[in-house]
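<goal> How does this chain fold?
<body> The protein record starts here
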Amino acid sequence: MGPTAVGKTGLAMRIADRYAVRLISVDSGQVYRGMDIGTAKPDADELRRYPHDLIDIRDPSEPYSADEFSRDALVSMQAAVNEGRLPLLVGGTMFYFRVLQYGLPDLPSADEAVRQRLLDEAAEHGWSSLYQRLQRIDPRSAQRINSRDRQRIQRALEIYELTGVPASDHRLSKRQTLPCEVVKIGIWPTDRSVLHARISLRLEQMFKQGFVEEVEKLHRRPELQGRLPAMRAVGYRQVIDYLEGRTNYDAMRERCVYATRQLAKRQLTWLRHDSEINWFDTEGSDFTEKVLDFLQKTTTVERYAR
């Protein structure tokens, strides 16, 4: 687990070199076919050498939910156990990890009347006004939600209006039964500037690899117009704004950097609230060996040694 661009996939591959594992992707963007560059998906050679479950399982026109991920991940984990391999989950979609372990919150269904009223209010007063209200009534949700994420702002306010209880206070369903013990490894550089530099470098590489062309190809598909979750992913929506003439190229690239940094900040916020995580500094000496040593000393991982 860890923020974007921190090196999670690389570490997972090194663990796979040492132990017999079944890699399971925990990434809400990598589930979609054709979204390769912008989601930093392992390339074809890496996937051949290190196959991952739950990559390229949906078309971008087919939304994929956290509940579906939880069911699919449980199937993959059980298959790993049955094969005598170690299930190794790797990715940065923190909500997926949470739902897999604890289930979904007990939340009300959508209410079209309340939703439309919130949309009308946003049209009249602006989304910043609604976000400020969310900060007052549910500061924990507001901390996790980007101030520009209209869909999640709307849903959090809708939950409060329907129940009178902030979304962050809703009780999670009972902890799920997993087929193996959970050991959480969190990685990040303690120097935030290092992470920012890694994000900038990754985005530079993405644009050189043809990220704009990837989004343009997807954007030409009529069925991908609108507010599909895949097209709202960080980076993709900024490039779409550029393709539709709402911003220029340089501003688009700057917005991609900013949005990715904000994503990393939200990911770290989620992670800091999880007391079960064992943290490792990616900039420390022999970082990978320290993780492998930790696994050997604190788990039964040695029975999976190659």
Summary: The chain has a mean pLDDT of 93. The chain has 13 helices and five strands.
